[in-house]
Write a structure and sequence with these properties.
Number of helices: 11
Helix content: 25-40%
Distance between the termini: 36 Å
Oligomer: single chain
Radius of gyration: 22 Å
Shape: globular
CATH superfamily of one domain: Metallo-dependent phosphatases
Length: 504
Amino acid sequence: MSARVRWNHPELIRAGIDQTRLVIDQGNDNPGSDDAFHFLVLGDSGTGRHRFQSPPRRIAERLLPHKADAAFLLHTGDVVYLVGALDQYRANFLRPYREWLHQGNAWKKMSPEGLIFNQPFLPVPGNHDYYDLSLPVALLAGLTLPLRRYLQWFDDVDAGWRGSRQGDAYARVFLDVLNQIPPARLMDHLALHYDAVWDGKRCLRYRPGVNTRLPNRYFRFRQAGVDVFAIDSNTLITPEKPTNNLRNLRGDLRSLEERRTTLYKTLASSNLDETHRDELFDALETLQEECFDLQRQIKQINQTNQAALVDHEQLQWLKEGLIASHRDPAVRGRILTMHHPAYVTEKTKCNQADTHAIRRQLRGVFDAVLKALGEELGTSRPVDLVLSGHAHCMEVLRTHDTGHADSNINWVICGGSGYGLRAQRREGAELTEQTADGSTRVVATSELFIGRNWTDAGARDGYSGLRVDVSEGRPLTIRLTPLVSCRDSKGWLDADPDPINLRS
């Protein structure tokens, strides 16, 4: 991604441009003074499945009544499944979110490259936005697509000829890809779009309906005295002690691939009813994700310098940004958004190595912030709210005393906005860790879980988006309004739980 945005290019340095800051155009350069506002959240949504009862489209429709006055929309990643391919964007992104697009009525003819939004639409990259298809799978997916469409099966697998090209598709759609601008025109481009000033540094101005690019894969912006930090968690998930048992990993991968082949054969049957077909597709999606994760782990083990895989530059940026934010009297709160959750009870993600890696990295940053600020932090916490996706559910958690600076923080997962949902683990709502003396302590508790077989909706699958209200004044208070819809044979049933006032 660095090369695509000309990261630290001499011309940008000479111009005094900060490529990690964003000013959202509100008619002036003042982001507001402790005013109330609300924003919307989506995540893990980018599927083209269920063409006639599309979950992404349904949740987009649930958000529409809240859109007009929303300050912005955050997307927690996995914008397009299965491998972030550019040729999947029209069906999996433009179609469901057309009301957020400038001249969105023409979405069928619109190129996904260089999109312009009519309201701030601010994603972070998910793991699927970085994935690529292996050559054999890509050929199979591409060559069989016409047949799959004719037979009306496999068309919904969300795989085309190619993958993301290491995030290139995501960059072309959302980022200010400076390496595509001829050198002779670069300064003119910077003068036109990097005209906002923040703390004496020039930065990119986000103009709804005009220019809606993001400066980098991670960035920050300010809204009514609240600093929002958006990070790319994909470069932060290297395990602390990666296994070197390649034989076991490869054996696991072969087993998953065999199960996947069996599912493909079953899905080829024309005798499946819609319910059974959907169940098999959900199982296939889970297997696909597990295969990709194992492939990534094997690739990491083959790296000669695994420590270099951790994006220390980004972690340092987050630490310094949080410290500066706490020392700025104009700031009344801080929100962090990313793809991978640090705390989660969804059954496929709660014990995943990625989850523990993110938890470890955030603890390191938050502990460093606490150490640097000391008494300056007072009763505040490094951040007031952490938003993530990756787990296919809606979940609200609260940490307890973890022994680190991530204690007593609100953690919200919004990853149930369209792709196959997952259930909560059988062990329940409490997450535990072993302490140094060998005892066990509860470090977090899940206070709301909505996903597969949601009990409050008669064991229906609950797809979800989220409205977040930030109150006027200080101290900062935040209210969550989950927007939930369940699908059955008759259509959609809305089943919204009560709003949640987060504890400070």
